[in-house]
Write a structure and sequence with these properties.
The complex is a heterodimer. Chain A is built from 12 helices and no strands. Chain A is mainly α. Classes of the chains: A mainly alpha, B mainly alpha.
Chain lengths: 317, 324
Amino acid sequence: MTTQSDTPVPTITLGQGPNEAYEPYEAESMAHMTWRHFKRHRMAVIGLIVVTILAIASIIGPEISPYDVYHSNFSERYQPPSLRHPMGTDDLGRDMLTRIMQGGRISLSIGVMAMSLALLIGTSVGALAGFYGGILDNLLMRFTDLMLSLPQLFVLILMTLLLRSINIPLLQAGGGVFAIVFVIALLSWMTVARLVRSAFLSLREKEFVEAARALGVSNRRIIIRHILPNSLSPVIVAGTLRVASSIITESGLSFLGFGVQPPTPTWGNMLKNAQDEMMRGNMWMAIFPGLMIFITVIAINYIGDGLRDALDPHIVR
Amino acid sequence: MTKYIIRRLLQAIPLLWIISVIVFLLLQIIPGGPMAAYEQNPNITPEDMARLEEQLGLNDPIHVKYLKWLGNILRGDWGYSLATKRPVLQEIGDRLPNTLLLMGVAFMTTILFSLPIGIFSALRQYSIFDHVVTTIAFMGQSIPIFWFGLILIMIFHVGLRNPVTGRPLFPARGMVTLGKPFSPGDLAWHMVLPVTMLTLFGAGTYTRYMRSSMLEVIHLDYIRTARAKGLAERTVIYVHALKNAALPVVTIIALDLPGLFGGALFTETIFSWPGMGRLFYRSAERVDYAMLMAIIMINAALIIFFNLLADIAYAYLDPRIRYD
């Protein structure tokens, strides 16, 4: 230590006297610790800010915009971006910025709803399979394998065609938003189920579960209150990334014409005729909606990246 | 190993059977199909319709329909396309080579690009090159692929022009120039944009995989040993490290291969490439039962087959893995 004489020697503060009151030890909460680590991931923080701004703009934007989302105005068709219309107008003379903000509401909601439903299905399947094991595990996992063997995009399209034909008001509302949510969730819960199952398999043998059992806690309560909270980390990361991939899936389906139907705007269906418009020189119609998808997805993916680093107990910081 | 492969192949049969039942049911519930075309025709009376339905076996109960379909498939009869009235297998046979050409070339450029870049990026971790590569790879994974295709067309077809002829720099439609005799150069010229679109998309994922896999390996003890005994750095990296680092990447590649046959739905739709993806798109729009059934079943079979292939490749490359 002689070579580092300029380094202050740390003073020992513990156990200085018998009368000294110790600070009661308080465990740092999981959320607090995660946030502390998350803050160090610069891109993730930027991503979070971007997503927040997009969400706020989508929520209040259409309300304060002077233009209507649906009302066409033929004297204002194909206006390139200007001060009056920052993102131009479309083939029916509707303000693109207003429609993009409304589309953001729909696209972001679809992402969040599809993720929630996929997590719900995936967590239930994974928890049941991992906790009970045996025949139930075998059946559920074979079913998961089956779902993973389906050609995803093709089956997605068939299912949207199917749901479009069923006459249930909820499925048809708003151009079929809920139908899309349902279809995307139904084909994307499998990875979550596998993650949760493997977490349950290792956790159910742990001492704290045994202790809970010895206390006579019911299986249901052990699953929900004891094991599930301890297996959430991978689920949170997978869920975050699932929001982004759901937005991409929705926009892809809508772009092909199988997704949410106009006049309800989503970032995907605003691009539906973009290829033809682009050939006619109306570039802005193709640029902005896609740019919004790109920005949103990359921001969410960075958040997922940051969460993965923050939640991973194996990374030493 | 042989036992394992046989067991897996036998397991694939019930799996495929269940998938066929599910997809068949799905298709039966979707409205449209053979009679939709006649419904608008005023020359066809309801009596004619009923007779036609009876003839086509549309009034059979659903399980009878399924068994008929299954029986035909087992005899090698995949039915007829509603749109073109041609045999399904013939339609697929016409499109498959186009898809394989496009996807095969794209797959090769993806690997040729991403694996060396991933390795190099890992060797120079935290360098500027590494930062640029990881950022671009991250963007490649986040960009909506169809929008990237549109942007490519916007820049290289609408925007930039060939300074000599004044025509668009690259074509945005089809495989060959209409009305010109076929030439490989013309075909290659038409492939530039779709291949670029597919390459960026796949390269993002593979670069990230290759990089992280290489990073994991390069800090292991046996690499230090190889260096300590005086091997050339080149040998250490490309012989000792790469062998192990390539393992997970090979698996990913094998799992992605069935996508080649399914065809990139978006790429083929945007660039009017007459392949399997476009065939599916067209068939889905018209609810062309036999076509959809065939395309999905072939794809499901390929996914299952390549899953098995990935496992076998893994066992072959990593002698520690034994399946028995």
